[in-house]
């Protein structure tokens, strides 16, 4: 008989700093970060994680902590976990590691989360040219539901998931990451596809010893400097999974990860109580500390059997996953469209990112008519269970993206109707999120057609 | 009492050419194309449409018709329909036109459809650099289900929708379209965000009198040449809706269109029996002739009340819509990820189009292991009810797109499992789609990591 | 290549009487009713049906037609259809007939339906002791939606299905039916389990030549009198399927019928635009004329392989079916409970019928607080897509039944909230259904606790 | 700011006996059982519960504990909880108590459950005449999923819910319960509607001091004997909610309970990891210890505003509830039908209980063809998320009940197909549940048609 209670593999105390934890988390990817725990296939084990910034953000009504967040100190990951089979043979490069997410939740005693946008000069967000200030909303959880004193009038069931989960890269894969991201940064904005449309900067985050935490690797030891200088940042998703921020990696989901190093060295963190497709505000899910109960299997040789690499090397692969049967069911949706014409009226060619930006902007303007501030809606669309779709990607020159929002999360009917949105006493205003000043000098994107209206 | 049977407003005979129809369709957008019919708000009326190419594609086993399709002759739209209220006052610019799609279906006696990819030198598709040949699959309908002799082993419930529906542009809006699209074409590939990654050409389709059909406008009359020379092509979705190819505009859906000209002048066509998000193969839904049963309402002044323009003018708006309660329900999904690194390994900055291309390529390679050709899967992913999501759009430098495919549409279990995909006698091959040769000279994108494998 | 358009197998004209139809329907079950059509497995064919009473009910505002309906003249079934395989071998007793319901809909030109309760002395209904009068509501269809001038303020998507579909009985099975139903009638109310609780009478409908219509059997021929004297009535569902009134036998569903006679002799009718579980008002779905597009397969020997008879003979079997993926999706439900204590306060033992009666009564009383008459809600709960569940069937002495109603079908919020249901100007009354007088002498069931209130 | 962590209101230790718990549970209903805790409306609080038999059943492979279970010692309920509003005013008779089930789960460290059937002479079950032996299956939980070593080859997502939750009865209501249940017992089997069809005995469980546990009421005090002699047993659901065993009272659900005593005195227990509609095997859900996180509101005067009593007194009411958005989604179902003809072939009149018994029997016989024992399927249908529907309740003389089973819970395809169910090496047998002998003398119901087959 297997044990009937999840094995408590990694514990975290959300009241302590990352470096005070018993099994120290890590915030970089590198093959030489040593495993802190080991599991066998078929074990049901429990991993606790701290929030992605390691406690930098507080449950209060000021956005100063968001404004001054230190992004070199993230994401704090629990692991690596070494996986072996029942015979004790570890996962091997070329295998697939099957990770079943059996249960997920906030850490008991720490049932809250935050959503924010970063200051434009310190990370930004999808719409940072429109919303350059740092903002914050705090969420409390009533079991499956989240609500916020900063965005009253909405409540929704969370689709809890790890924003970040993945296997360790091999040295070769790490080299590929560092090379291609450095090339992007060095080429600069002018060489990017979207440099003039999206304004989150830097273009990529290169290895940075400052703020690095390497788990069980001895900070005083001989390897630390080398590893910290090479280790990849955790911000983007990559071939190993990583920070994919896929909201459907939720309870009951099964993920198939490629294995690049012996033991697979699985790490995870950045738990989200809920997130919208795209996580548009960047610090954009309901970020929390949390736990995962997990089972692993190994498909020997599965990487070659199932994943066809596409690119210069055999390492250019992608994970895949199966969605579980327990998503929240909403039946009525309001959907906003966007096409790949930017805010200046300029036509882009089949650019889904531009199209999605337009859909999100349209949704914000629309919903703000119901008593919310635009900043509230921006955060809401980042963390509620909305769906972002690539609806049309072939009809030159316009990509069409859509953003679908479940109507039932609002305590009022937000559908269009004769007579227009509520006005006068029917319009209930609803406070605001916490906001900091933007002290930088970059220009805010202006809605040109509204300028004339001001005259 | 209202009449209890839909008013047969516009009839089409799929066996006749577009110009032989009683109420002639049109294949360009222009405010001067005269209405062919008029309805009152609250009427339930029925509009028939012919397939988007007006009968150029045949139910046979050759892709030659796809290869040589004349794209100046599309999309054939039924309408315009002038909408007035119960007092006889027509819709006015600034109103919202509410269009409820009460019922949709194929034309009786013509229950079939086609999916294809165009030749790279005649339209291409999302993956035309990988699949430059014209291909075709024919689908027959068993009521709600579609199946194809060219892609045996799959069957799915359709989510019937009009690929194209929208209101007529005003002269000002038309001018905006023509200006911005011309600017794109004139700037050329080098100035585009995605010119080096997507290879569908031309970048945009500018007004073109050749092939133009202008409905009830007299081809011998004085206005024809001017209108045909100015009228916008129907390929992209725009501020008026148009060819948005949104698969969820299905039975029970309610769309809110901005009104730009008196009467709204609603047109529609390009009926799809089913489509996947993105419609990746371009001729990519299950294209068919079909009918729509529709009800309209007018929200007076609703455009200003509900839609905030974003851009240089007040006309830069977007439609929105509500999804109905009758989508096919699938509960198990296999999901593929893509990041914004292209096939050469080059890093792009938050480009969702690149990321989605990678997700689609990964899905094709994966599913082809189950006895299908890659061309079959390419067409299948274009027309089955798969979902394309913008999962992460803020984690520099990688956008993450996902493609979710319902498992139940296959007659075999396509999930990964120990032992790998079927081989030997367990692997059932399943014919192929109709294929033409690609006679052009543009290079096919090579999967570099597989080249070495050939040596 | 198979034909791509459904074979028009049986046509019906809803404007003509049953006996004026080209292929005459039948309204009794008997093995000697000859097939009127033949199909081959794999054919997609179309069957039209007239409404179950054969046109006795009119689209008007009087319930007199319902009150005086002749129940010896129902249900009018299209068929029998003889099914053979590709080699021409007909279905054999012991096979399973697989019937896929590919598409369903109202008859074009006849898009309306009716819901009613019968007079207590002429058929009654589940709550006939509370509602003895005949009532009627007329429904019109906007594509997938139904709405009624007699029950304003509700609108819902239909789940179209045949109330009645089944294979012909063998002589042995017919004998079993007639014997057991006659035994029930002869034993009388006192011998029944529920005689004192349910008041629909007679207890069963025995063979009755009056009103009988036997399809292609010559009314002047020698067999007619014998067959009409033996043939089973169509009211109940039985081993052959029949009038099961299962609302989920809808588009995309696959039913497995036992075959009792050579050729299977499949018949169908009683099309419903929508129905609630239980069809409580008896004439209780949205009754309409309609069409079915169907495909058949034969599982040779499947009856023995898959169905275990339970009872005195090998013929005591039950059909089974698979639900399709296209049900309307509602996500929010209001649920009423009932236990097996009757209206007098008497305790019954695990009686789900009593419990369901209580749940339905509770739902009627509740919803009537929102401006509807109880008669309107009674008809609504009979025909909207509500779900009746056997929640608990073991906790002596109470069975618990629940009735779940989708909230989104109402144009007001019917959930409980502080302050109570609408009163004064907020309470909108909504007319009534058509009602006839009850001229009989049977006592209406009194809600005893409300009597005192009247004093 | 409200506290962000649930208030730990009632704690239970599943390793201790009921009488060793700090806040003692109770296993009877009586107005004089004193509250053990108090909450304010709006509080989020956590209640732990022990399993319904208070630890009588063990995690082993013998059914002896089930066979000899003491049913006078159940269900152990946590509470009563007194509810007051923010001003300190307690809930009053005539109010509605709104209970939101925010989160539910097994008790940490005790993640297992059991399903069983009782011996026919000690409680029985819905099919006890077919399955008189006590049986047991043990389930372990992998997060949202349950699986059992006693029923290999199935795994499903749980819909966790309290089988039993309700408010305390007033003295008048308690009297009504005791009177009507005593009348049933005294009238005896012959007077029941279903005495000859269902064989669970006794017909009802009358007050019984033996085994009674009355929470905080002093067992040595003067009131104990009186209260224990009057207090109602917890087996059935009643006007106060109670043991309704409604599987949809799950996460996110909101229940509206009538209040009969000051403070409402809410109690709960009998947590189920999963249950099928009907809970047919009686000890039939996956029974476990568990926790609930709950919020209460009071609707003042809501009982009169929203609940219409039906019966001799104003106390004859029923709770209602709203279903939450987080049910497991299954899209493919296999459905079995039953009509109200019993196993002897006798016709009953519109009896849904008989019809459901036939549907369950049909499902057991069918699924047992796939390598399971009938006992395994009986337990499975009692605890997996299957749906029992009252499909037709008006078509004399047959009620039609249906039982829908989600196909995806099996690791094999259980749909009918050509060639029949697996045989020979394709048929995988799967052990059995734990079974005890039935030592009683009551006759097992024989499937008459199979007897002849033995000759």
TrEMBL record, chains A, B, C, D:
Signal peptide: none
GO molecular function: hydrolase activity, acting on carbon-nitrogen (but not peptide) bonds, in linear amides
Origin superkingdom: Eukaryota
InterPro entries (UniProt xref): FmdA_AmdA, FormamaseFmdA
UniProt xrefs under PANTHER family: FORMAMIDASE C869.04-RELATED
Name of the protein: Formamidase
